[in-house]
Amino acid sequence: MYVGLSHDVEERLHYHNSGAVFSTKGFVPWILIYKEKVGSLKFARVREKYFKTGSGKEFLKNIVLDP
Question: Does the predicted model carry a pTM greater than 0.70?
């Protein structure tokens, strides 16, 4: 599971899947399962931090397991 923030999610996903990122290239292909559009960079960082917590990961797992 990868959590991050970007202005262009599709471009960032392509970048990761191209093998250009050392830390993620061993796990390609990456599949987008969830994205949110937020109003500010500050709030985006708050949401990113949440999704990296146990509660946030459980939220994302429930999306995958219970679409």
Answer: yes
